[in-house]
Amino acid sequence: ERSGKSGSLSKALVHGVWAFIHLFFLKRGILDGWPGFVIALGNFEGTFYKYAKLAERKAKWRYPPQQMGG
């Protein structure tokens, strides 16, 4: 956020997919088999959440109002 990056959910998805491809294919995590896949998937998830959280802060999302009664 401090670096001036902007965030959106589409950017979150693109960066997450790129993080997975980078780690699994370009860094040859595919050679590790299942553990390499799980690590790349975890990297996808962390990157996606990082950009999604940035998008949430930039958009100033709020919780929906609570309804009384029931």
Describe the protein in words.
The chain is mainly α and 70 residues long. Helices cover 63% and strands 0% of the residues. It contains 2 helices and no strands.
Draw up the topology in text.
Elements lengths: L8 H18 L7 H26 L11
Helix pairs in contact: 1-2
Spatial separation of the terminal alpha carbons: 39 Å
**Biggest sheet descriptor:** none
Helix/strand structural class: mainly alpha
Question: How many individual β-strands?
Answer: 0
Helical segment count: 2
**Share of residues in strands:** under 5%
Q: What is the H-and-E element order?
A: HH
Molecular shape: elongated
Low-confidence stretches: none
Mean pLDDT: 88
Give the tags:
70 residues; mainly alpha; 2 helices; 63% helix
How would you concisely characterize the structure shown here?
The chain is an all-alpha fold and 70 residues long. 63% of the residues lie in helices and 0% in strands.
